[in-house]
Amino acid sequence: MKLAKVLIANRGEIAVRVIRACREQGITPVAVFSEADREALHVLMADEAYPIGPAPATESYLRIDRLVATAKAAGADAVHPGYGFLAENAAFAEACAAAGLVFIGPPPAALRAMGDKTAARRLARTLGVPMVPGTLEPVASDDAARAAAAEIGYPLMLKAALGGGGKGMRLVRAAGDLAGALRAARSEAAGAFGDSAVYLERYVSEPRHIEVQVLADAHGHVVHLGERECSIQRRHQKLVEESPSPCVDPALRARMGEAACRMAKAAGYVSAGTIEFLVDPDRNFYFLEMNARLQVEHPVTEMVTGIDLVREQLRIAAGEPLGYAQADVVARGAAIECRINAEDPFGGWLPSPGTITGLRAATGPWVRDDSGVYEGCTVSRFYDTLLAKLVVWGADREAAIARMARALGEYKVVGVRTTIPVLAQIVAHEDFRAGRLSTHFLDRILPGLTAARGRLRSVAIIAAVLAEYERLGHHTLPPPAPAATDAWRMAFRPGAGGGRR
Ligand code: MV4
Predict the structure, then answer these.
(1) What predicted TM-score, i.e. pTM, was given to this entire model?
(2) Domain covering 208-447, topology
(3) Does domain 5-104 have CATH number 3.60.15.10?
(4) Measured in Å, how far apart are the chain's first and last C-alpha atoms?
(5) Which atom of ligand 1 is nearest to the CA of 204?
(6) Is the peptide bond before 353 cis (omega within 30 degrees of 0)?
(7) Which residues in the chain land under pLDDT 70?
């Protein structure tokens, strides 16, 4: 079956990413938008765009009825959910199917199976895929939890059965803390997922978060595309991702990849999916959960494998076979992604909505800018803060790091605060350059980064005072040497000529 028209049930950079893949495949992309997104980039780029409701996502991008009705009215034959919103919602996949629309993702049964983390753990157990010791079912009572905890040992993690991404998760250091943690985790899980079921796992300290990309077609073929290192995160929001992981060698990659493929196959998985693992300091890997969607960080895999994951999703949804085997998947060089968010890293990481008054994205050799914004557009406070993903490729990790540092230096955003300055500091950090990463990396280095920022502010204030003193006719310093600062850097400064503000 050939897909002619695809409705994209999403917004921002991922909607733009899917529009691009559709166009390259000769498919007509259809956008949808909330009242806050009338002039969003994805709307301007699509052939057709339809309103789906007010700004809050619950009244627009999460409205299954409106999305399905819009897809039918537009004459679309398929729906791409992007990530987030309804991407892993089995009811949405079912509603699409019931309306005669192809859902570009896994079958509803696979979505349900992977949504229950304990079901995924039971599957891993059946297949002999290594996982963190813990319960295979939710704990039925506090007594059952106490008994299981005694067996697992402390410290341990409580996790919501329907959770993921860190929500409904509690670290329990000792038996005395278990009852309180259970109560807190259950109520958080009930609030977030409508189900208070929790299970137990032994706590893995200083882990790396490494995930394996898989592609599965509807004919039983499954391949993996290697791993992504996703350890650099803050409060479960990733900031920097890369492929390959600096701590994975070919033997470990083969073992993790094989485990990931077996999980996908046994789950009846179809489309692009990700198997998450924790890797401990001794490089033991443990299955964590499966993400039944295209992920934010998918471009680093695309850059090293040359495989367009959205194109593959579209082909697979159309019923085409993969057409290649594991041995045909070859990774070359290294890729890094930095997430450019409208947040103030020096102001408590608060969202920074507003109008982008100046924008110049990095370009040049082996630099990719997956952006959802343009100069003059407004960043809404209703949605997540991701503006763009800056992705680079290099012949090796060192070259990719140098290229990312260069590209971050070129990237200019005026009007909203962004994560760019911390991304530059992360990429320059000696531990990052040495590949010494764990999920605690960012929490460890952030205090130092913000302190450095404080010193820079002090220097800036002293410089401003001295400049004013000189302007008043006093002489404090010998005349400055001709400016070595590049004109572009100065152009967007308030008060500088030439730059748009
Ligand atoms: C863990 C763990 C340590 N031990 N499970 C956080 C997100 C969720 N997907 C799983 N997470 C963790 N599970 C055990 N048994 C530590 C984390 C964790 C983490 C994982 C991936 C990326 C960042 C993280 C930050 C803190 C904790």
Answers:
(1) 0.93
(2) D-amino Acid Aminotransferase; Chain A, domain 1 (3.30.470)
(3) no
(4) 50
(5) 4
(6) no
(7) 477, 479-501
